[in-house]
Amino acid sequence: MSLRVSLTGATGFVSSHTVMSLVETGHRIRALVRPARDVRWLEELNVELCRGDMTDERSLRAFVDGADVVIHTAYDATVDDENRQLQHLRSNTFGSLTLLELARLAGVNQFICTTSTYLLRPDVYTPADVDHIPIDEDSPWRVPSDTYVMHNAILESACQVYHAQFGLNTTRFRCAWIYGVHPNLEKTVWRDIMESVRADQKYESTFGCDVVCVDDVAMALTAAVGNPKAFGQVFNLCDMFVYNQELAQLACEVTGSEAEVSAFALPKPAPVSSERVKALGVNVHRGMAGIDGYFATLNRLI
């Protein structure tokens, strides 16, 4: 069934991939885009454009008008600075809450948003940071230590309230660190690791994080559209935990580099369960083979 889907962040990382997935599924798309953005590729896909941003209530009203589903992935990282806290709140937190309320007032049937597994645990910088407690969707949140995690907590809480109090079918996806080809190749994740090993530089790091492929995030968002199994639900999207050390070693194999990669004996944390999303017909577990394929693509592009 073709639905009218309004999507924020369409020119960004996650939503640009989601647009393609939605188009392939036959949904009609309206995209909220900033006035100065180049959107010719969206026009070629017959995506309806709504010019504006998350601080513009008038644009948001037009954006949700007549929509069956709203997908909200936009996050303005340019204001992630303690000296721009008010701008952060206006663009991200206040903007998200305004969008949620306007969606309700417009009679939108479903509100889908992305948050982060950072609600459940942070990245690993040293072995002392490794968490051995298994995590699933019902695990308690950690105390927010930065404005990004605070934003996630507020957005998730608001979605829970709007589902319980107003009956709005909210769906939340907690994404791990997302890898894949970014529309702006300069921002593509792990490009720095690839360039370092291609230059035969010694690589040394104890950093590690939970990861998931952007194509699987787009697939999950698309699978949730109009799906009663997603109504009122929260899903973790995490493939696995990986250390940068492992990524550098894999990059060496893909590029044929002889760069030295320091080999530390690093413990792995307990997994973040992503079994619940299988109810939507989505499996996010690609493993290292998924990253290997991504690195092969990235090696050709840069």
Describe the secondary-structure layout.
Layout: E1 4-8, H1 13-25, E2 28-33, H2 40-44, E3 48-51, H3 57-64, E4 69-72, H4 85-105, E5 110-116, H5 147-166, E6 169-175, E7 177-179, H6 191-198, E8 208-213, H7 214-224, E9 233-237, E10 240-243, H8 244-255, H9 287-301
Parallel strand pairs: 1-2, 1-4, 2-3, 4-5, 5-6, 6-9, 7-8
Antiparallel strand pairs: 8-10
Helix pairs in contact: 1-7, 3-4, 4-5, 6-8, 8-9
What is the structural class? alpha/beta
Largest sheet: 7 strands, parallel
CATH class category name:
Alpha Beta
CATH topology: Rossmann fold
Strand content bin: 15-25%
Q: How many E-type strands?
A: 10
Helix content: 25-40%
So, CATH architecture? Answer: 3-Layer(aba) Sandwich
Strand order of the largest sheet: 3-2-1-4-5-6-9
CATH H-level superfamily: NAD(P)-binding Rossmann-like Domain
Textual characterization of the structure:
With 302 residues, this protein is of the alpha/beta class. It is built from 9 helices and 10 strands. The chain starts with a strand and ends with a helix. 42% of the residues are buried.
Concise account of the structure shown:
This protein has helices at residues 13-25, 40-44, 57-64, 85-105, 147-166, 191-198, 214-224, 244-255, 287-301; strands spanning 4-8, 28-33, 48-51, 69-72, 110-116, 169-175, 177-179, 208-213, 233-237, 240-243. The protein is of the alpha/beta class and 302 residues long. Helix 6 packs across helix 8.
Please describe the structure with a list of short key phrases separated by commas or semicolons.
Rossmann fold, 37% helix, globular, 10 strands, alpha/beta, 302 residues, seven-stranded parallel sheet, 17% strand
